[in-house]
């Protein structure tokens, strides 16, 4: 018998997998339910109050003492600022250049999947893609054998 030690090195997904059709439908339904049952946020309440103040000002019912000496940033101004920031944002593509060129040596590919390190090793007269492995040496633990395998193949 010959014992070998190997180590499995995995790159976990860096982004989520795309949703299936059913998952998208459930997500849309849950979002609709959340919108229907949600309460106003502080920002929404502030916006409604500001709209009411503007309406009273137009109707000449606005009390100037309410805003005397205040510099006010309107909620709409904040929303415009956020909208501009959002329009400047550009999400990274889910399909990378390594995916397009089928570069199997790059870690920057298949971002939504696990990647496992495999190396081409000659076993007998065949070359096989295997986990990095080396033969166990007497006096060595299997862990140190596996670590040696990684050091051998990764440098």
TrEMBL record:
Q: Which residues form the Large ribosomal subunit protein mL46 N-terminal domain?
A: 1-99
| Family annotation (Pfam families) | MRP-L46 (PF11788)
GO CC terms on record?
A: mitochondrial large ribosomal subunit
Reading the lineage from the top rank, the first entry is Eukaryota
Molecular function (GO) terms for this protein are: structural constituent of ribosome
Q: What is this protein called?
A: RM46 protein
Give the gene symbol: Mrpl46
